[in-house]
Amino acid sequence: MKKIKALYFLSLLFTTSIAHAFQEDLGSAYKKNYTNYKVSDSIFPKSFWNSESVKITFVPSIFFGSTAITWNGREHILETRNKYIPEFANTFDDYLQYAPGALAFGLKASGVKGRNNIRRSVYNYAGSMLITGIFVNSLKYSTKVMRPDGSTANSWPSGHAATAFANAAFLDKEYGLVNPSYSITGYGMAIMTGVGRSMNNRHWSPDILAGAGFGILSTNLAYFFIDKIYGNKGDNLSFLSKIEGNETPSFLAVRLGASFNSNNILKFHNDGPEAKIGWEAGFEGAYFFTKSIGIGGEFTISGYPLAQNNTNKLEASDTFEQYNLSTVNSALGFMNAGIGPYYAFHFSSKFNMMLKATIGYSFGASGKIEAKQNDTDIFLPVNILDNMTISSYKPHSSFRWSTGTAFTYNITDQLGLSLYADYSTTKPTIKYTPGNPQLNSSNNKFESNKADLHYLSTGLRLTAYF
């Protein structure tokens, strides 16, 4: 349960930080016709958010706090990467980190007005990159954290993530008031850059979170100093104040929460391993044709750790005692995708509720229960050392349907924080295979059963309207 509580707390930190990263300090300049929502409606005092120190440091502070919280769990996140894409290697993140900034300057070159004219934008961007470089390089070579691939000791913080989020914050500040889709695109690129650093096994998750914090902080500081030099908040404020938004609740969202199964996923032995409580993370979005009716979908990854106190019932106790071994296991994983209709109820300018029903597929990932040597001074026979697997399991792909609801509080006219709950069901065939016979108990046998899974997922969702 401690892991579940930590996930809830982390989801609150993550969604709040991204929500305020999207918020533009000019607040009410962008209004939706159907809500007429104002920043003054926020649950937080307007004077608090208008404070320059809060505008500059609040979001980075949340990312830095998330870095500390996820530090001890970074091995588990790496385990998820190794489960799905152990051989992944691609250089897309080397280029994607600069894409939000390139998009901003491309818009300016095309004549699309943003917050500032081209010369002032160049000053802001250069200042942001300079401050980012100072932060990242001074810390990389003083903290000397080893990368997860073991290549070099300069992992924390991630320079790619810092650059990507500095670029995304730049695009957000220049064009977020013109259309929130620019902010969504920029931060989406930054998030994918961070994901790419993890997929390429180049960074731990705390490295990426810290890099995001330093990147946003750098852009905030650059704009603060340049605005002081110019004596105003932007060159084109009068133009931006006339822009009005879309009238439908079309949205993109990032979500993180816990998942609870009504049945044990690995129900092969009465005294075998249990996998009932897990986590999920992913993306969701919908396009609304009217204020109430739309179509959308979700893409999520979920993991269900095995209960450690049950995995030891599969081991050959005499062998484990003789060689001082213990068990380690990887979580059972699923990648889920679905599409279907959405329906929205608008209670007020601040609150709405969405209902959905989706159909799709669930793709399973294999995992293992393995033996670990606790005392390396004890000699292990070759027939054990060469194969430390006790058991392996593989869920096959299966049809999945889901229904759910989300209650959203609108932080601003562009962004909301949602509490969601989804009920899903799927019936994958799961193959369970014993490993090294020297490590297995006599009760550990090959099984291939169809699991009947019914699970409730609940957590927090950042909802960005476009």
Automatic annotation (TrEMBL):
Pfam families: PAP2. Residues 124-226 form the Phosphatidic acid phosphatase type 2/haloperoxidase domain. Residues 1-21 form the signal peptide. InterPro entries: PAP2/HPO (IPR000326), PAP2/HPO_sf (IPR036938). Keywords: Signal. The keyword Signal applies. SUPFAM superfamilies: Acid phosphatase/Vanadium-dependent haloperoxidase (SSF48317). This is Phosphatase PAP2 family protein. It comes from Myroides albus. The lineage of its organism: Bacteria, Pseudomonadati, Bacteroidota, Flavobacteriia, Flavobacteriales.
